[in-house]
Specification:
heterodimer; A: about 280 residues; Rossmann fold; 2 domains; six-stranded mixed beta sheet; four-stranded antiparallel beta sheet; 12 helices; about 20% strand; B: about 270 residues; alpha/beta; 11 helices
């Protein structure tokens, strides 16, 4: 079942001199883990803003084409309606957190929905548990580490129980181990809750192994759309200078030097496994 | 030369960010300061241009203590590019942003014009000359911040997390750019936890943890030391990880570079064929 469906989507920001999206047609199925990437300024953040209705309702401008998210035609539904279905986690959690305790931050969106106290408490407990931060409940968000803060931001979006969660470079302020943990939390949510995940990311070395769908944009258009292995191995991705994982790069170099290799490893674990099989022969 | 003499620093909140750091960075060096969030990396480099003064110990820039000279004067020598460009940018156009510091340093208008054009071109920003920095993407704003510092040609350039929000191609441009700056004799200090970027640049790495330096040496040695990387909340480069899983075949895992990995594997298979 498609949770996101766009047909010939086109958009220009008010006052912008060129379109940020041109003829974007794509489908995202329920429960997919999608990596959305492409050169800086390619339109990926703009596209995400369409998914939760920030475009056109907040940013203005004219959105052309057809866009359905979680069964709703975005142009006909306000941001607060979309927010229940589409959660957005930003790059820098500091921009998202503001309450005096983690618990209050996570409850904030629910309060705005006018939810009953008991139900709200249950939701908050659940979201804290899912993101592994129950013990931080009483702490002030601004005292936490970057990784902890990002988990609080994820919990506060998760508490709304959205069908789709969009993460806009959620780990770029985190150290690598912290980043890896966040990707694992996200992957866990996808597996346990069947949430559809859209991850906007440049650093593909860490994230690629979780994805089952990769979309690459350039100059406002979708240029590649498919399974990670095919995409990372395609000429177009290389030409665009997408950060193809090192494992794929190594594979390519070996093939160019005459080695006959099958498959395309998208993570170091896979590359190791593939190489071990060859070495055993 | 920057000489950090066993400095201590505590923030007003009571957080002890630096607990005795000695470090010397020679002229023309390329150093990456790495470590987990909160390790004290940014606090340390903010001492290099006098933005912060140590509570104990001292920092000498070309033999002058940062306590004895104004930040404005130090800035001429030590340029600092902030992690978050929004902490740095405020002008109405990209052009004015870059010209601002030059005016403050008292450059002549003709020189300013030349320098601005040069910096815009260098960072691929010419088309945004008349644009407001706030209309640009995060990655573009970072380049504006970098351009505005490079424009006054400081001897030491400090870049705090320069790769955040940069796509792969921009990172590659940044890498070549840093190598070029360094090749011209500039001292480059990069604060980062982008392991793959460091693996590609191969600079001297200073690893910090909990306000102290825990290791100092070439990137290849430090990034492939799994005990060290774990302690500093860093993941070894992907290439190293691949080789870590092949040690029982006799491979060494001190490899960070793709081309080197290729050569090792090709040599191995070539050998096996014979």
């Amino acid at each position: 079942m498609a949770v996101v469906e766009t047909k010939a989507l086109a958009y220009t920001y008010p006052g912008g001199n060129k379109p940020s999206l041109r003829d974007v047609s794509l489908t995202i199925e329920k429960g997919e883990f999608v990596i959305l990437t492409g050169p800086s300024g390619c339109g990926k953040t703009t596209l995400c803003r369409c998914f939760n209705g920030l475009i056109p309702h907040f940013y203005g401008g004219e959105l052309k084409g057809d866009l359905r998210v979680a069964g709703l035609r975005v142009s006909e539904h306000q941001i607060y309606e979309m927010a229940k279905r589409v959660g957005l986690v930003f790059q820098n959690p500091e921009n998202q957190l503001f309450a005096l305790s983690v618990e209050k931050d996570v409850a904030f969106g629910l309060e705005n929905l006018g939810m009953q106290r008991e139900e709200m408490k249950e939701r908050v407990d659940w979201a804290l548990q899912m993101t592994g931060i129950e013990e931080l409940r009483e702490r002030a968000p601004h005292e936490l580490s970057g990784g902890q803060q990002q988990r609080v931001a994820i919990a506060s979006v998760l508490a709304m129980q959205p069908e789709i969660m969009i993460f806009d470079e959620p780990t770029s302020f985190l150290d690598p181990l912290g980043a890896q943990k966040i990707f694992e939390v996200i992957n866990d949510l996808k597996n346990k809750l069947e949430v559809t995940v859209v991850l906007v990311e440049h650093r593909l070395d860490l994230a690629s192994k979780y994805a089952n769908h990769v979309i690459i944009m350039d100059e406002g258009k979708v240029v590649l759309d498919g399974a990670p292995r095919e995409i990372f191995n395609s000429e177009t991705a290389w030409l665009l200078g997408v950060g193809v994982p090192k494992a794929v790069r190594l594979w390519r170099l070996l093939q160019e030097n005459g080695m006959v290799l099958e498959g395309v490893p998208v993570s170091s674990e896979e590359a190791t496994r593939f190489l071990r099989e060859i070495l055993k022969q | 030369m920057i000489e950090v003499k066993d400095i201590y620093f505590t923030y007003p909140t009571g957080v002890e960010a630096l607990k005795g750091v000695p470090l010397t960075i020679g002229d023309g060096e390329f150093v990456a300061i790495m470590g987990q969030n909160g390790a004290g990396k940014t606090t340390l480099v903010k001492h290099f241009n006098g933005l912060l003064k140590p509570a104990k110990g001292e920092v000498l820039v070309d033999s002058v203590s940062t306590r004895d000279v104004s930040v404005a004067k130090l800035a001429r020598k030590v340029g600092f590019v902030f992690q978050n460009p929004d902490h740095q940018l405020f002008s109405e156009t990209v052009e004015e942003e870059i010209a601002f510091a030059l005016r403050n340093f008292g450059f002549e208008e003709a020189t300013i014009e030349k320098r601005v054009t040069w910096a815009l071109n260098l960072l691929d920003l010419t088309e945004y000359r008349k644009t407001s920095p706030f209309m640009l993407s995060g990655g573009e704003r970072k380049r504006v911040a970098l351009a505005s510092v490079l424009a006054w040609d400081p001897k030491v350039v400090i870049l705090d997390e320069p790769t955040i929000g940069q796509d792969h191609r921009q990172k590659e441009n940044l890498r070549q750019f840093i190598v070029q700056l360094n090749g011209q004799g500039k001292t480059v200090v990069v604060v980062t936890h982008d392991v793959e970027f460091v693996a590609e640049c191969n600079p001297r790495v200073v690893l910090m943890s909990e306000g102290k330096i825990v290791a100092d040496g070439e990137a290849k040695k430090i990034l492939t030391d799994t005990a060290l990387t774990l302690a500093a909340s860093i993941v070894p480069p992907q290439i190293t990880q691949i080789f870590l899983g092949l040690t029982d075949f006799g491979f060494s895992y001190d490899v960070i570079d793709v081309s080197e990995a290729k050569k090792i594997l090709l040599d191995y298979f070539e050998e096996a064929k014979r």
